[in-house]
Design brief:
2 domains; 11 strands; alpha+beta; 43% helix; D-Maltodextrin-Binding Protein, domain 2; Glycine/betaine ABC transporter substrate-binding protein
Length: 297
Amino acid sequence: MKNRSLKILATGAIGMLALAGCTAAEAETVGDGNSDNKDLTIAVFNGWDEGIAASELWKAILDEKGYNVELEYADVAPVYAGLSTGDYDLNLDVWLPNTHKSYLEEYGDDITELGAWNDEAKNTIAVNADAPIDTLAELADNADLFDNRLVGIEPGAGLTEAVTDNTIPTYGLEDMDYQTSSTAAMLTELTAAEKSGENIAVTLWAPHWAYDTFDLKNLEDPEGTLGASETIHAYGKKDFSTDFPQATKWIADYTMDLDKLQSLEAAMFVDYDGQDYGPIVAKWIEDNQEYVDSLTA
């Protein structure tokens, strides 16, 4: 009886080990000497065109290297939450030290910095180039010339937070109608204002293709309420370097200056009116092959 019981226990243990082996199957890798997981999800902020451009570029690069890259669009807060839980692998549009400061304070311990790829970013409030004011200090006294409106972007954006908490109280803009909705809605308002010749004030940021499309100027911010130049970083899930050691090295070395970024944005969002960016990015890569090849050299 004792030997029979031991046989049953041993058989059961072997079965459990076999089951565990099935359920813990290793993820498919890229292969050909690359041990990275094949499937990689890049989270992209809705409406953040520099992030869309960088993400589409890296999707094209990594797909060509044998990865299976998926882009998933979401608002800022859900992206940070998803990175912290491992639902997303990578985001290429983290603005520091100011714009996304509150998100890093909340989620920083559960995500990992991979590198900074641009140090020329800046939050702004922009107006039509022929507007009769040049600084934010003049906006309150001339609010009626702008239909008493300041047109913003997504309510959860770091730029929106900076304008609400810093710019509006500093320059006495509380009586203006600060409208937040989406980047797309802001750009629609900007288009309409340019066509009608009306003054408009919008929250914006550089780099952005809007500066190549519309005749704009940034209002000077003498009190520094929107911060100085910012740096755009790539962040991954906590164990990104474990699942993607090769991609970690590539992303860490990735840099893209303002001219290159604005060139890609112009190709995707100014010269092209559509959503299928794959062929547009492929043509841009062809025209910038030496630079693109250097990103994975």
